[in-house]
């Protein structure tokens, strides 16, 4: 690939402003190696670190990671406990890096229902990074897309919004992602091809990319490949290609 082609997909105009990830395959990665599922989650957290750093280096402004769904509470208690212990450890380890890279941490989901240690670590990191502006890292924690939509609808009612004022803009302003642009690109690893209740409203016009790669094996190089593929796509938003070319 020539330097000019490389520049094409790394230019601000070609890169997505907001990338979301469904980080799937940690358990299968561990099972294939004869390890406990916890080993896969630990390896997956290292992938998070690499991809966040690379996104910041490239200039991607927003990233959302589907970290723990409301449905995930149904997993074995041992695994759930480990996931939150890993989250606390990850935050303590990565907070200095988030500050150095000027990354703001944000949460989509019901944080008050999380274990105390996780809640405390999250609140500390959120407060510490709140003035950072170069990139926003959103963790979807204790999150459900359908619950988010119901929550926003209830808020509209509570705010006594009239029928004529129930607009996409007013509705979006009551979502967890208020003030953040919808994802341009959604990436899901491990070969599963579904949204799994993740940002159902926000992903309406997102480009989607599904890979067989398990999350712990998702490399910076493959991320680059996905971004190249994204840059080559034509986003029409209901228009025809001819209309876009004439705009």
Written overview of the protein:
The chain is an alpha/beta fold and 247 residues long. It is 46% helix and 15% strand. The protein is built from nine helices and six strands, in the order αβααβαβαβααββαα. β3, α5 (116-129) and β4 (135-143) form a beta-alpha-beta unit. The chain is globular.
Which tags fit this structure?
247 residues; alpha/beta; 9 helices; 46% helix
Q: Write out the strand line-up for the largest beta sheet, numbering strands in chain order.
A: 3-4-2-1-5-6
How far apart lie the N and C ends?
30 Å
Low-confidence stretches: 1-6
Question: Which secondary-structure class do the elements indicate?
Answer: alpha/beta
Largest sheet geometry: 6 strands, parallel
Count of strand segments? 6
Strand content: 5-15%
Q: DSSP helix count?
A: 9
Q: What is the helix fraction of residues, given as a range?
A: 40-55%
Order of helices and strands: HEHHEHEHEHHEEHH
What topology emerges from the helices and strands here?
Layout: H1 3-10, E1 18-22, H2 26-32, H3 37-58, E2 62-69, H4 77-100, E3 103-108, H5 116-129, E4 135-143, H6 145-158, H7 168-172, E5 185-188, E6 207-210, H8 220-232, H9 241-246
Parallel strand pairs: 1-2, 1-5, 2-4, 3-4, 5-6
Can you give me a brief rundown of this structure?
46% of the residues lie in helices and 15% in strands. It is an alpha/beta fold.
């Amino acid at each position: 690939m020539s330097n000019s082609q490389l520049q094409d997909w790394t230019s601000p105009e070609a890169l997505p402003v907001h990338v979301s990830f469904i980080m799937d395959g940690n358990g299968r990665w561990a099972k294939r190696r004869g390890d406990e599922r916890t080993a896969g989650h630990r390896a997956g957290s290292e992938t998070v670190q690499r991809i966040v750093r690379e996104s910041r280096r490239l200039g991607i402004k927003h990233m959302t990671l589907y970290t723990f769904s409301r449905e995930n509470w149904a997993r074995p208690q041992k695994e759930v406990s480990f996931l939150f212990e890993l989250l606390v450890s990850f935050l303590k380890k990565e907070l200095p890096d988030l500050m150095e890279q000027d990354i703001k941490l944000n949460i989509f989901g019901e944080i008050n229902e999380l274990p105390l240690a996780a809640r405390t670590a999250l609140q500390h990191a959120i407060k510490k990074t709140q003035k950072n502006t170069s990139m926003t890292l959103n963790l979807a924690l204790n999150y459900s897309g359908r619950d988010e939509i119901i929550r926003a609808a209830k808020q509209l009612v509570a705010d006594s919004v009239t029928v004529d004022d129930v607009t996409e803009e007013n509705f979006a302003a009551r979502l967890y992602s208020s003030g953040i642009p919808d994802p341009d690109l959604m990436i899901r690893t491990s070969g599963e091809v579904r949204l799994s209740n993740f940002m159902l409203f926000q992903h309406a016009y997102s480009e989607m990319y599904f890979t067989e790669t398990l999350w712990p094996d998702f490399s910076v190089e493959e991320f680059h490949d996905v971004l190249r593929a994204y840059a080559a796509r034509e986003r029409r938003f209901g228009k025809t290609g001819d209309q876009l070319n004439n705009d």
